[in-house]
Design goal:
The complex is a heterodimer of chains A (124) and B (633). Chain A has 124 residues and is mainly α. Chain A is built from 4 helices and no strands. The longest helix of chain A has 28 residues. Chain A is flat. Chain B is built from 25 helices and 10 strands. In chain B, 50% of the residues are buried. Chain B is elongated. Helices cover 56% and strands 7% of the residues of chain B. Classes of the chains: A mainly alpha (124), B alpha+beta (633). The interface between A and B is large, with 47 and 57 residues.
């Protein structure tokens, strides 16, 4: 099924919001950690977004028509951190070293979210 | 006009986050990277570092690090590991050291929790939400900040998920909302454990309320049940560990107290007498924040009346107000035996923020109706900003120091993992900060610590003698007794079994041959210690070792690390002391005669490297009191 054009536009617009938020976060971090180098701050902020915020926003798209962006971002970040802990703990016990989780997890979530909104949400 | 209001709100939220970060990260001295841990002020704070390092290096928390398990390699990973996984992953991604990440992650997640509560309150009333924000700042101010500074960090990150469960109640009618409940509830087990049980109580209260309101739908029940099943399955592997070790273990330990996570069968008002928890008794909080507390209490009364009125009129539930009471409840569970409930009060500025907001809001309503003015969101933002600034100026103080540890001790402790074989046994002689014994686990080695409270040791310090055997502590994460798996649902306990065989406390404290270790760590600078006599004793022992075949491998003028190259026979310690005294006498004789000897050169070199005048090699004889009597108070 084709993804709804409205949803695609929404994702595009919210993608811009996320970029703006990322830049804003960089500015906030530089204000607070003004003794720190820009590169370190950049890597820290990008890591925050890559690991916690962007996957969180993505996994909340199933409810995009019921919840506003800000709420989805906050709830999604919390949900993503929680699910990451559960996933990371269990998968590490099974043998996958945590150094791989920082790549596997966000990619899994982004792919999974795409799958859900493309096939399951449309059906619902 | 509507658009401007929204932008102002968002701008204010950005300012609020900036203020929270500024205050929360004050201990970071405006840097992300440091030479030593910042923000850690007690053993509990330091204990998280080596476990997170372990997860980062080994890849999982299947086993507790052997250096936190007093040498045992098969102790199961028993401590709720949520914080370790988040921090280890973030450390890998960001490139920051683990000791810089743990505090950082805790602050960031706490700020996210503030935003989460804001979202919930905003659903109730935007003005109340804006007016609630200033109180949340207090979470980064003592006594509430003690929770983070002293190490209750798993508790702080778990509250993000507790708030998630509360949010789920307000959104239970969303399609597939059971996902939220299942994940938020399930993760609390891995993040801290105890809140998993609190939530059972909260869910029960929620269901009961809905029944009273006659608003409990089948769909709600379905979401709770499906979410509940998921919440049980997701953390099942760790749940088995936690329940058997902490819950069942506590019951087995009975009045011995166990881990303290779970009631031991009768009402306990414990916490009084515990210096950390004393800071968050209701009377202390009230005394320290009298005006703020009065506003919160007024808000609780107003909220209670509003909720009760709606109950009577059957007009629905104001979840934001209800959650405030849930938060207050969690901080009061000690009265039904949950010893750790006092910890929940560290989070009161966030849980109870709605009461602060609603009290101020009702004053505004009064003024509005008297003055007959049309209220705008902007006015709430202005009032909130004024309150935020007032609270900041009233209660925030720039910190005077950033950590319980100094860069010299940290340098010494972290030298060990990079420069010693992994199976080394490391002995720590007295140092002021080593009482926070989790610091020693950052050596990443099987370590021991002198029992400086032992009377024999204190006598030796007073008399200037060196003993062949010292009463020694084996520090470690000993709360559940060093458990190891004997089956999927069964554990042995190394400590309990050892003590049963050898006597109570015998694993933790025993007499040990002082010459049987691979490395020795000595605090050597008396000026940086509260007990110079103990440091003097350190220097005596160090001199004996160095003179008899051991070599110094590290020295930063505050800490010296000596390697036991040759295993000495310590049964003739008196002989060593005589030897040193003879060498000293010879050296003094030569000095008087104007020539130097090898021994004197060594002593001078040592003194120079310490930066003080030759006290390190001095051997104190019996009867020479000096500082000894001061130290042994």
């Amino acid at each position: 099924m084709e993804m709804d054009q409205k949803l695609l536009n929404k994702i595009k617009n919210e993608g811009i919001y996320v970029l703006i938020l990322l830049v804003l976060t960089l500015v906030l971090f530089k204000l607070v950690f003004f003794k720190e180098s820009v590169l370190v701050i950049l890597r820290t902020v990008v890591s925050l977004y890559w690991l916690f915020i962007i996957p969180g926003i993505a996994m909340m798209y199933y409810w995009h028509d019921k919840l506003k962006f800000f709420e989805r971002m906050i709830v999604g970040t919390a949900l993503n951190i929680g699910l990451f802990i559960i996933f990371s703990y269990n998968i590490s016990i099974m043998g996958l070293h945590i150094k791989w989780h920082i790549w596997v997890w966000p990619v899994l979530v982004l792919l999974g979210s795409w799958f859900v909104i493309k096939f399951i949400k449309e059906k619902d | 006009m509507e658009e401007i209001k929204i932008n102002l709100e968002k701008i204010y939220l950005v300012v609020f986050v900036l203020v929270m970060m500024w205050v929360g990260f004050a201990l970071y001295d405006n840097s992300l990277r440091h030479d030593y841990p910042h923000g850690d002020f007690a053993s509990d704070a330091f204990q998280h570092l080596p476990k997170t390092d372990w997860v980062k290096k080994e890849g999982s928390y299947k086993f507790n690090p052997f250096y936190g398990s007093t040498g045992y390699h098969d102790v199961v990973g028993f401590y709720p590991p949520g914080l370790y996984y988040v921090s280890a992953a973030f450390s890998i991604a960001s490139g920051l050291e683990v000791y810089d990440v743990i505090f950082f992650i805790t602050i960031i997640i706490t700020i996210i929790s503030c935003m989460f509560i804001y979202v919930i309150i905003r659903e109730y009333n935007k003005n109340v939400a804006l007016l609630s924000l200033p109180l949340m700042l207090l979470v980064f101010i003592d006594p509430f900040f003690i929770g983070i500074r002293f190490g209750s960090r798993p508790f702080f990150i778990t509250n993000l998920f507790v708030i998630g469960v509360l949010w789920f109640f307000s959104k239970i009618e969303l399609k597939k909302s059971w996902i939220f409940f299942g994940i938020f509830w399930g993760v609390t087990m891995i993040a801290h454990g105890i809140e998993y049980f609190y939530i059972v109580g909260i869910v029960s209260a929620f269901v009961a309320l809905k029944l009273i309101y006659r608003r409990l739908k089948l769909a709600d029940l379905k979401n709770i049940i499906i979410g509940g099943v998921i919440g049980v399955i997701l953390p099942i592997y760790y749940s088995i560990i936690f329940v058997l070790l902490y819950v069942v273990g506590d019951i087995q330990q009975g009045s011995n107290g166990g881990t303290g996570f779970f009631p031991n069968g009768f009402l306990r008002f414990v916490g009084v007498g515990n210096p950390i928890y004393n800071n968050v008794t209701y009377s202390t909080i009230f005394q320290q924040f009298k005006l703020v507390s009065i506003i919160v209490i007024i808000g609780m009364i107003i909220s209670g009346i509003v909720l009760a009125k709606k109950l009577i009129d059957k007009k629905g539930i104001d979840y934001a107000l209800l959650f405030g009471f849930f938060g207050f409840m969690m901080g009061s569970f000690n009265f039904i035996g949950f010893r750790k409930a006092f910890q929940s009060r560290f989070f009161f500025p966030i849980f109870l923020a709605v009461f602060f907001g609603i009290a101020v809001y009702y004053v505004i309503i009064l003024v509005k109706s008297l003055a007959k003015i049309k209220w705008k969101t902007m006015y709430s933002i202005v009032i909130s900003s004024v309150l935020l600034l007032s609270i900041t100026f009233a209660y925030y103080d720039k910190p005077s120091h950033f950590s319980a540890i100094d860069p010299y001790h940290w340098e010494a402790i972290t030298w060990i993992p990079d420069n010693t074989p992994i199976d080394s046994k490391v002995y720590f002689f007295y140092g002021d900060i080593y009482d926070q014994d989790a610091i020693l686990r950052n050596s990443h080695r099987f370590h021991f610590f002198i029992n400086w409270q032992d009377q024999e040791y204190q006598r030796a310090v007073q008399n200037g003698t060196v003993l062949a055997y010292y009463n020694t502590e084996r520090p470690g994460d000993s709360l559940p007794g060093y458990p190891y798996r004997t089956g999927l649902f069964s554990f042995g306990r190394h400590e309990w079994e050892y003590n049963e065989e050898h006597g109570e406390m015998s694993l933790k404290f025993s007499l040990m041959d002082i010459c049987s270790f691979d490395y020795y760590v000595f605090d050597i600078h008396p000026d940086v210690s509260r007990t110079p006599a103990f440091i003097q004793h350190n220097n005596i022992v160090r001199a004996v070792f160095l003179t008899n075949g051991m070599s110094e491998v590290f020295n930063n003028q505050v800490v010296s690390i000596v390697k036991n190259d040759n295993i000495l026979d310590c049964s003739n310690m008196d002989k060593f002391i005589e030897m040193i005294q003879a060498q000293q006498a010879e050296a003094e004789g030569r000095e008087a005669g104007g020539t130097t000897s090898e021994g004197e050169e060594a002593k001078t070199d040592e003194a120079e490297s310490q930066g003080e005048e030759g006290s390190e090699g001095e051997v104190r004889t019996e009867g020479d009191n000096g500082n000894g009597s001061e130290a042994i108070e």
